[in-house]
């Protein structure tokens, strides 16, 4: 297979078979000895059924690798070979927001009419220097944007505005790149300068993956919503007048570790404020 060099993101030569990647993986969580054995097989291109079916492509192993060998991409590259030889599997298509019929379109087609109208109003490519980018998940629950905590700037988005994350994590790098270039052109045509990101995956793709892996750079500045909210709280522009005596569970995004050092703690700090 003559794979373009730009799509070779793993580096087996840097792997020292320490086993940290697969032993600290939140999904595999293998004993260290087993993790070392499995990683040796992976380096040889021998991806076991257990590893391939259990791995979710969360890239946590890349974060834990002490030598930046990008162990996740050694597994994702196996999926990519399947994609190149057999095409995108039907069950994989269902999880891609850009496919005509997918799990998010299933939800958005069944939204109440007022939410459908709200979602439709976001799909606006007219000139706009500053706006909120909801991300694909928020497109399935538009009512979450009905909050005075958000700044008085437009929301722009929709499933066709996807950052390409699901393509990237499944090894469809060419499709991820194509979507990145579509969004690069769209943001440029809009004259976008400041984009408030509700989506952590989108933040990671637009600020790290696209420029560092796929050579796609944006003129716009991407700011995470949680960073905005924390700054507003600290400055006093947002005031908490009545605290709720409730407990909350925070689900960390797969990509939160790769962003700003304190990014993963910001939701907790906001809830505790």
Concise summary:
This protein has 14 helices and 3 strands.
Notes on the protein architecture:
- With 273 residues, the protein is mainly alpha-helical.
- It contains 14 helices and three strands.
- It has a three-stranded parallel β-sheet with strand order 1-2-3.
- The longest helix is centred in the middle third of the chain and has 18 residues, at 173-190.
- 34% of the residues are buried.
- The mean pLDDT is 92.
The overall strand count is 3
Widest sheet: strand order? 1-2-3
Radius of gyration from CA coordinates: 20 Å
Q: Tell me the overall shape.
A: globular
Structural class: mainly alpha
- Counting DSSP H or I runs of 4 or more residues, the number of helices is 14
Helix-strand string: HHHHHHHHEHHHEHEHH
Major sheet, described briefly? 3 strands, parallel
- Proportion in β-strands: under 5%
Query: Which runs of at least 5 residues are low in confidence (pLDDT < 50)?
Result: none
Helix content: 40-55%
The overall pLDDT average reads 92
Oligomer: single chain
Distance between the termini: 54 Å
């Amino acid at each position: 297979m003559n794979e373009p060099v730009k799509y070779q993101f793993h580096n087996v030569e840097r792997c020292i078979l320490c086993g940290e990647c697969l032993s600290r993986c939140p999904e595999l969580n293998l004993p260290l000895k087993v993790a070392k054995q499995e990683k040796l097989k992976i380096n040889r291109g021998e991806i076991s059924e257990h590893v391939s079916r259990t791995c979710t492509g969360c890239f946590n192993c890349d974060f834990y690798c002490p030598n930046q060998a990008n162990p996740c991409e050694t597994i994702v590259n196996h999926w990519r070979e399947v994609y190149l030889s057999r095409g995108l599997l039907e069950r994989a298509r269902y999880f891609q927001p850009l496919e005509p019929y997918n799990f998010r379109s299933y939800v958005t087609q069944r939204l109440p009419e007022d939410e459908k109208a709200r979602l439709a109003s976001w799909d606006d490519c007219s000139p706009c220097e500053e706006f909120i980018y909801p991300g694909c998940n928020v497109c399935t629950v538009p009512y979450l944007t009905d909050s005075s905590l958000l700044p008085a700037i437009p929301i722009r988005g929709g499933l066709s505005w996807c950052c390409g994350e699901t393509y990237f994590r499944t090894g469809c790098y060419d499709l991820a790149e194509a979507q990145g270039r579509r969004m690069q052109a769209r943001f440029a045509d809009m004259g976008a300068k400041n984009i408030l990101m509700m989506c952590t995956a989108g933040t990671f793709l637009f600020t790290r993956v696209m420029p560092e892996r796929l050579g796609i750079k944006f003129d716009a500045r991407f700011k995470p919503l949680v960073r905005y909210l924390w700054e507003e709280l600290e400055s006093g522009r947002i005031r908490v007048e009545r605290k709720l005596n409730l407990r909350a569970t925070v689900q960390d995004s797969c990509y939160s570790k790769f962003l700003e050092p304190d990014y993963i703690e910001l939701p907790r700090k906001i809830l505790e404020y």
